[in-house]
């Protein structure tokens, strides 16, 4: 029996994954334990949980695999600073002392930390290092349903690569093309994110949500000045407008002169010009994404495509590629960003290093995090003086569906936590999408976030094609689809201003309890759709434990919390023991 532990850490979205003879046992992000959004620290809490959960110690672990090669990344930073000297001095003076003190000796430091876990003194200290984009590619291809596929990985930057093309076949992955730093679609999008006053590495999805409110009037300006796009989708950035390679900021003052406005300050009002810039960068991203997809199809001859890297989570661009028909089938790992690379690194070890054969996945289930037994949940709730009642299944689904149909907002906490940045029905806030003003209420009173932010619909799989332009299933909320005629008026809370929605489909096969609830709601209302958003507030990671869920419940205007078969009504709560939130900006 071979145990492999995969780790991603020290940039953003630290995570850990555990394989046993190639089987995915569990995977979880550190942020869910630390309660620090996008936490980048060594995932100590996540490792402790994953070892305890599967009754193993470090003595049982045959291989630990880190998701990238630190020395190669250090080489890139050093070369970049020298190349852009003297402008690179600021980055050099900030980064090099940290690397010399800590990161350059990451192998030694990782071993020191791993030895501290139970059984560490007996661990064989077999520590391997994958390549950043290889880890992304592996996380995308190995859990996919394809025997062979093209793999397109797009992110900010790994060691050197920013975009790579590979072919996955059987157990093998072979890289055939790559683009290198500083020419990066992820960095281009993140630069505009920063320019529009949002936080890099967490605010990019806000630009995607803001884009439909604008017109792409700056697209030509962007393509003529910021990025030179070739017919094959490759491109070069004009570094005159960017500072991420040399300084501790993303853009130069030249970018402000180009757009004719000052960069937006965080939390200041959003003007039409900001929406137009968002629409423009999204259109340019769509164009590059689609050109790359066409080139990859021609280059590889593959009919299936796996998308990986943080940019793959841009579901508007991914939706355009899907709708184009360039590939017959597209699969995106739900945790396509750096967190998912913990899983990819472990799979690199299993399939490439150990040469273990692979069977395409029939169904990849992203519910890989912690679950909580009812007794544990009750103990946590008792410790917080919560008022609750236990309801058997035959009543639970009817009671919850009735509450949703009555316009109540429900926190739905079931089973294992999702290994995904998106709630997929186990750590979700649910509501009736037919309520006209619900989007505003959810944004301002529940999520405490910007009013323009859209909410995603979840639909019973068997009815999806009747309501949206979708064929088949979309269980991971990875693509944008267009609502069919008349649906906008039926579902005002989940259809965005451009008539699209980031859709999730649910079947009894993929999530039995969630499906059962939705089926009950459909039988009451004739509507197979619910609003589904993550169970958290702005600046906070998705909840992990019943205690986290109760804190979120008490700090918001959520009406009811359902944890397994435990039901809590807001008007019955008198507890003063919950954690009072100080909402952070994200």
TrEMBL record:
SUPFAM superfamilies: Actin-like ATPase domain
GO molecular function term, any single one: catalytic activity
Domain Carbamoyltransferase: 4-346
InterPro entries, sorted: ATPase_NBD (IPR043129), Carbam_trans_C (IPR031730), Carbam_trans_C_sf (IPR038152), Carbtransf_dom (IPR003696), NodU/CmcH_Carbamoyltrnsfr (IPR051338)
Leader sequence segment: none
Limits of the Carbamoyltransferase C-terminal domain: 401-570
PANTHER family: NODULATION PROTEIN U (PTHR34847)
Family of this protein: Belongs to the NodU/CmcH family.
Protein name: Carbamoyltransferase
Organism annotation: Vibrio gazogenes
């Amino acid at each position: 029996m071979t145990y492999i532990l995969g780790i991603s850490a020290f940039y953003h979205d630290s995570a850990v994954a555990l394989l046993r003879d190639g089987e995915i046992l569990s995977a979880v992000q550190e942020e869910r334990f630390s309660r620090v959004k996008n936490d980048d620290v060594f995932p100590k809490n996540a490792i402790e949980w994953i070892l305890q959960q599967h009754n193993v110690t470090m003595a049982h672990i045959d291989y630990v695999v880190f998701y990238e090669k630190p020395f190669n990344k250090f080489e890139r930073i050093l070369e970049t600073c020298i190349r852009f000297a003297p402008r690179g001095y600021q980055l050099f003076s900030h980064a090099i002392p940290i690397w010399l003190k800590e990161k350059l000796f990451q192998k030694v430091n990782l071993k020191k930390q791993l030895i501290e876990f139970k059984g560490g003194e007996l661990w064989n200290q077999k520590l391997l290092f994958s390549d950043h984009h290889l880890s992304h590619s592996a996380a995308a291809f190995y859990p996919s349903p394809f025997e062979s596929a093209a793999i397109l990985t797009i992110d900010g930057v790994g060691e050197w690569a920013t975009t790579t093309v590979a072919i996955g076949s059987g157990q093998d992955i072979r890289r055939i093309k790559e683009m290198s730093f500083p020419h990066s679609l992820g960095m281009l999008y993140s630069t505009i994110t920063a320019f529009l006053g949002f936080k890099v590495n967490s605010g990019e999805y806000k630009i995607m949500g803001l884009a439909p409110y604008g017109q792409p009037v700056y697209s030509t300006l962007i393509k003529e000045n910021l990025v030179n796009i070739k017919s094959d989708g490759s491109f070069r950035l004009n570094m005159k407008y960017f500072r991420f390679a040399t300084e501790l900021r993303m853009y130069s003052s030249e970018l402000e002169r180009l757009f004719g406005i000052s960069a937006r300050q965080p939390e200041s009002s959003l003007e039409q010009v900001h929406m137009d810039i968002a629409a423009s960068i999204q259109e340019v991203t769509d164009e590059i994404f689609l050109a790359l997809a066409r080139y990859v199809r021609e280059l590889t001859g593959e009919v299936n495509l796996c998308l990986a890297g943080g940019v793959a989570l841009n579901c508007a661009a991914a939706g355009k590629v899907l709708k184009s028909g360039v590939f017959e089938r597209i699969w995106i790992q739900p945790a396509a960003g750096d967190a998912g690379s913990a899983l990819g690194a472990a799979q690199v070890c299993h399939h490439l290093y150990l040469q273990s054969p692979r069977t395409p996945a029939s169904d990849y289930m992203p519910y890989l995090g912690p679950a909580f037994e009812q007794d544990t949940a009750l103990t946590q709730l008792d410790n917080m003086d919560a008022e609750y009642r236990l309801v058997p299944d035959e009543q639970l689904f009817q009671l919850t569906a009735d509450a949703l149909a009555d316009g109540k907002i429900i926190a739905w906490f079931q089973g294992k936590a999702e290994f995904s940045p998106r709630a997929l029905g186990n750590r979700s806030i649910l509501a009736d999408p037919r309520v006209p003003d619900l989007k505003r209420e959810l944004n301002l009173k529940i999520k405490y976030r910007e009013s323009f932010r859209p909410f995603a619909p979840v639909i019973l799989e068997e009815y999806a094609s009747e309501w949206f332009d979708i064929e088949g299933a979309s269980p991971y909320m990875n693509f944008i689809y267009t609502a069919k005629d008349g649906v906008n008026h039926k579902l005002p809370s989940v259809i965005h201003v451009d008539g699209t929605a980031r859709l999730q489909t649910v079947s009894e096969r993929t999530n039995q309890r969630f499906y059962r609830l939705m089926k009950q709601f459909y039988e009451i209302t004739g509507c197979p759709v619910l609003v589904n958003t993550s169970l958290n507030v702005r600046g906070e990671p998705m909840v992990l434990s019943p205690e986290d869920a109760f804190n979120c419940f008490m700090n918001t205007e959520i009406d009811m919390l359902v944890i397994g078969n435990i039901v809590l009504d807001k008007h019955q709560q008198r507890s003063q023991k919950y954690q009072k939130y100080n909402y952070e900006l994200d």
